[in-house]
Amino acid sequence: MTNPPLRIVLDTNVLYAGLYSASGKAYQLLRAIEAGRVRVALSAPLLFEYEDVLKRNQATLSLNDVEVDAVLDNLCALAEFQAVYFLWRPCLPDASDDMVLELAVAARVPCIVSFNAKDFRPASRFGIEVITPKTLLEQLEKM
To answer: Which residues on neighbouring strands pair with residue 61, listed in sequence order?
Structure first.
């Protein structure tokens, strides 16, 4: 019997890191998403943020427009789309992180995967844990 995939919200910094380096935990997490071991909740605003960040940093990531679009298309194909009807703003120090938390609340995921856990401390009020890719991968190993 296989375990159902872990459901998460993926912070933009983890997506960026996974595309930047194939030797880190963020890259391994992207591979786990591709393999179906992790399921990402996604909203239109977060998808637009992903696109903005990746396209602004194409040279650093060694990706062109077509490749960025392919990455986002693949992520969309693997994600669960969630509409967000209720906003909790302002809740976090960085306003762009509010949409990540709002998505996590709306999608009822147990965790947000981010390298900026300190910025998401208020997420615990919603019963949402904020963990690093390393911690998530360790959880996957135990399943």
So the answer is: none
| Averaged pLDDT, 86-98 | 69
Look at 36 and 85; give whichever has higher pLDDT. 36
pLDDT digits (tens, 9 = 90+) for 38-49: 999 999 999 999
- CATH T-level fold of 6-142: Rossmann fold (3.40.50)
Residues in contact with 129: Cβ distance below 8 Å, sequence separation at least 6, in sequence order? 110, 111, 112, 123
Q: Is the pTM of this model over 0.90?
A: yes
Domain locations in the chain as residue ranges = 6-142
Q: Which ranges in 6-94 belong to alpha helices (H)?
A: 12-20, 25-34, 44-56, 58-61, 65-78
Q: What is the DSSP letter of 9?
A: E
